[in-house]
Automatic annotation (TrEMBL):
<dbReference type="Pfam" id="PF11968">
    <property type="entry name" value="Bmt2"/>
</dbReference>
<comment type="similarity">
    <text>Belongs to the BMT2 family.</text>
</comment>
<dbReference type="GO" id="GO:0032259">
    <property type="term" value="P:methylation"/>
</dbReference>
<dbReference type="InterPro" id="IPR021867">
    <property type="entry name" value="Bmt2/SAMTOR"/>
</dbReference>
<keyword id="KW-0808">Transferase</keyword>
<dbReference type="GO" id="GO:0008168">
    <property type="term" value="F:methyltransferase activity"/>
</dbReference>
<dbReference type="InterPro" id="IPR029063">
    <property type="entry name" value="SAM-dependent_MTases_sf"/>
</dbReference>
<keyword id="KW-0489">Methyltransferase</keyword>
<comment type="function">
    <text>S-adenosyl-L-methionine-dependent methyltransferase that specifically methylates the N(1) position of an adenine present in helix 65 in 25S rRNA.</text>
</comment>
<feature type="binding site">
    <location>
        <position position="140"/>
    </location>
    <ligand>
        <name>S-adenosyl-L-methionine</name>
    </ligand>
</feature>
<feature type="binding site">
    <location>
        <position position="120"/>
    </location>
    <ligand>
        <name>S-adenosyl-L-methionine</name>
    </ligand>
</feature>
<keyword id="KW-0949">S-adenosyl-L-methionine</keyword>
<keyword id="KW-0539">Nucleus</keyword>
<protein>
    <recommendedName>
        <fullName>25S rRNA adenine-N(1) methyltransferase</fullName>
        <ecNumber>2.1.1.-</ecNumber>
    </recommendedName>
</protein>
Amino acid sequence: MTYKKQRSKRPALLSRTRPPTIRKNEAALSAKATRNLIRSHHTLLKQRAQASRAGDIGLVDKLDTQIQANGGLESYQLASRIGQSSERGGDSSKVLIDWISPGLAGLKTTSSKFRVFEVGALSTKNACSRNENLDVVRIDLNSQGPGILKQDFMERPLPLGDEDRFHLISLSLVLNYVPDPVGRGEMLKRCVAFLTESPLANSNTSMMPSLFLVLPAPCVINSRYLTEQRLEEIMSSIGFSLAKSKQTSKLIYQLWEYSGKPQPKEFKKEILNPGRSRNNFAIIVKRDVK
């Protein structure tokens, strides 16, 4: 039985973790300023989630004020867009296109298109959007313009049929934004429900339903609670196998193929890589109660 049939309760909404936003005029940011803004926003967001779980409304309000003083969600998105711009060489979908291009070649002679679901989309002009063989659906909590639907992935209605599902889901620098380890596990499990039940076949190849996952490298290589091996164990339990992987000094890119054969297992938050200099990024996976 797949995770699509095991949901027992409504997953927490990502929008509950997002603070209010304020508008600012876009301005040029240096690479250092971009990194500092993103890092600060993530830190405040995690502190806010902890305060919210503890029921400390006063601290939540205080942190909201700090987040707004830093520019809110829109400034975070601006920094993210700049970091992923072609000028900075940061469009992660270029890696994805390089990986899947051989499989897309056969589509040029057919009417079929490869359906891509981009969660946390910031642009309609990235490499995915420019590929004529891709039919891209984009969502984000705070849409940056036409072509991006304002929607919470955890609230998006489940597909009624395979025509509403996708050949590939892109979670590029999205999972690390979720401040709660349990929420990260729920997001990964929920992806299964939005993947098509059959591979895309053409004259050249057969492409399996897949998940494109991009994370900051320290989340995997410098965490107390997550290692490359543990991430592979988590993904395998959900039904994924690693097809492609690339690591730079800043990011880890991975393409996971979905086999349709999950082996449900719980993964708790436990120290795997001790050390004072490690970070606390973790993914918790809970078994669904039937």
